[in-house]
């Protein structure tokens, strides 16, 4: 059956206009002032609503085995929560154990993700280096639609990538037309600071931010940018939380380097006072890396988004229950790192961004959807409202209020870090591939409704990268 969205105000990253949209077989087939409805069409009246491209969350961890446990939201509950929040595509992470074939890990994650209710794709983490990794990266790119590889510069003695590994992997990314991404924190320093805090008897969650101060992040970001710049590769830095990192990225961009930056809805809206709470469970529920920062960093992140230094917003959704967090009761370094927000990202961005005059509605679309689609090369299939684009939409009521609560959330986690927060501007209906997936509090999409999204290599920015590298290539002096 076709789907007709009537009377909506379409908002994309660069336009706002009133029109009807007809969708057939999961894609947009017609956009016109007025489309006549027929009996073969399901009709949605979007009068008074904004019709925007479905959100793309470029950073989630559903069902992640991590720090001795497994994230509580699996690909079904996590993607249903995403749809309830207006997100129609997630890019999750395959994180192989060191020494595990990265191709084997990829197949494992694909199997887990079959029950996704929204569309999904994968970044693959490089957690070790060997000839098989070099070979498998090519297979992943050529046969499985992967065009981004992740490097964790933190998590020493687990999945940390060394400089040597990053140099090898960034080079391989450049050959393959994929984009390297990094979790930027100096893992050696984090480890050192953690041990010294424990030695001083500071074992609670309040020690977490002290073990990961802003300079630990900005040093690593600088180092990753330097490696990428020396190799001539673009780079994407995930979950930037500190002003110093925004400054480092801006400096690199001003010096001609192609650096993309992501920040999280939680870092934009929450500060580090949560770690001082005397209730251990409350403070531990907020342990994630990088940690929440003093308010001055939040403003720097917003400034980074409005100035164009930062490009995307994500969640890093990685949900752990009280019982799981309690694994670190005696030692904060054992508290599983991660918080949940896949359902709240869009409404937080609207409430704190559009409603406070920090960003426009068009910028909201760019930051929640289009820019990710462009960087990870799925634009205009995703992130756009154009003929031929996937019929993924969020229908937005900018005047409707909601109180965020554990009671109404779709995530399985037993704590909501935004409990009681009042927001204005919420998704009332989410459409995935031309079908209503969420409406007025109910997720209609089923496990398995989401499709795997292949992502081609050599995103458009790569043509400039290749040409620049060719022009700047070192040449031998002929001394014959
Ligand atoms: N962010 C976090 O604390 N947990 C998930 C893993 C990661 O992204 O570092
Ligand atoms: Zn991370
Ligand atoms: Zn993450």
UniProtKB/TrEMBL annotation:
GO terms for molecular function: dihydropyrimidinase activity; metal ion binding. The keyword Hydrolase applies. Its EC number is 3.5.2.2. GO terms for cellular component: cytosol. Its cofactor is Zn(2+). Pfam families: Amidohydro_1 (PF01979). It catalyses: 5,6-dihydrouracil + H2O = 3-(carbamoylamino)propanoate + H(+). Gene3D superfamilies: Metal-dependent hydrolases, Urease, subunit C, domain 1. The modification N6-carboxylysine is found at residue 150. Carbamylation allows a single lysine to coordinate two divalent metal cations. Keywords: Hydrolase, Metal-binding, Zinc. It comes from the Bacteria. Residues 50-436 form the Amidohydrolase-related domain. GO terms for biological process: nucleobase-containing small molecule metabolic process; pyrimidine-containing compound metabolic process. Belongs to the metallo-dependent hydrolases superfamily. Hydantoinase/dihydropyrimidinase family. Catalyzes the hydrolysis of dihydropyrimidines and of the structurally related DL-5-mono-substituted hydantoins, to produce N-carbamoyl-D-amino acids. Homotetramer. This is D-hydantoinase/dihydropyrimidinase. It comes from Parashewanella spongiae. The lineage of its organism: Bacteria, Pseudomonadati, Pseudomonadota, Gammaproteobacteria, Alteromonadales. The gene is hydA.
């Amino acid at each position: 059956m076709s789907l007709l969205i009537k009377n909506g105000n379409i908002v994309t990253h660069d336009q706002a206009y009133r029109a009807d949209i007809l969708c057939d077989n999961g894609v947009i087939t017609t956009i016109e002032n007025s489309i006549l409805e027929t009996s073969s069409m399901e009709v949605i009246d979007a009068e008074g609503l904004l019709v925007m491209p479905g959100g793309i969350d470029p950073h989630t961890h559903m069902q992640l085995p991590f720090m001795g446990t497994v994230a509580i939201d699996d690909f079904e509950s996590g993607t249903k929560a995403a749809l309830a929040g207006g997100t129609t595509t997630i890019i999750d992470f395959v994180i192989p154990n060191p020494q595990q074939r990265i191709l084997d890990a990829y197949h494992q994650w694909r199997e887990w993700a079959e029950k996704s209710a929204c569309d999904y794709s994968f970044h693959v983490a490089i957690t070790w280096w060997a000839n098989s990794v070099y070979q498998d990266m090519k297979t992943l790119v050529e046969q499985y639609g992967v065009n981004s590889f992740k490097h964790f510069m933190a998590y020493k003695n687990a999945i940390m990538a060394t400089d040597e590994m990053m140099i090898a992997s960034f080079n391989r990314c450049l050959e393959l037309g994929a984009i390297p991404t990094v979790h930027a924190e100096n893992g050696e320093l984090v480890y050192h600071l953690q041990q010294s805090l424990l030695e001083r008897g500071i074992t609670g969650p309040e020690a977490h931010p002290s073990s990961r101060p802003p300079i630990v992040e900005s040093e690593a970001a600088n180092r990753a940018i330097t490696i990428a710049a020396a190799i001539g590769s673009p780079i994407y830095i995930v979950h930037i939380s500190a002003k110093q990192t925004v400054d480092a990225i801006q400096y690199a961009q001003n010096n001609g380097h192609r650096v993309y930056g992501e920040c999280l809805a939680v870092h934009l809206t929450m500060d580090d006072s949560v770690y001082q709470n005397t209730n251990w469970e409350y403070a531990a529920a907020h342990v994630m890396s990088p940690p929440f920062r003093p308010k001055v960093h939040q403003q720097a992140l917003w400034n980074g988004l409005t100035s164009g230094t930062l490009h995307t917003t994500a969640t890093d959704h990685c949900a752990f229950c009280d019982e799981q967090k309690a694994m670190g009761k005696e030692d904060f370094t054992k508290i599983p790192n991660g918080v949940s927000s896949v359902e709240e990202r869009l409404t937080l961005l609207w409430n704190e961004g559009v409603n406070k005059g920090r960003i426009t509605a068009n910028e909201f679309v760019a930051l929640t959807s289009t820019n990710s689609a462009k960087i990870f090369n799925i634009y205009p299939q995703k992130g756009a409202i154009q003929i031929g684009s996937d019929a993924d939409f969020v229908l937005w009521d900018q005047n409707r209020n909601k109180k965020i609560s554990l009671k109404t959330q779709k995530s399985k986690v037993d704590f909501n870090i935004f409990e009681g927060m009042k927001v204005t501007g919420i998704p009332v209906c989410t459409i995935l591939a031309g079908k209503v997936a969420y409406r007025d509090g109910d997720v209609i999409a089923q496990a398995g409704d989401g499709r795997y999204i292949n992502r081609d290599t050599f995103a458009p920015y790569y043509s400039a990268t290749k040409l620049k590298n060719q022009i700047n290539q070192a040449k031998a002096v002929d001394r014959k």
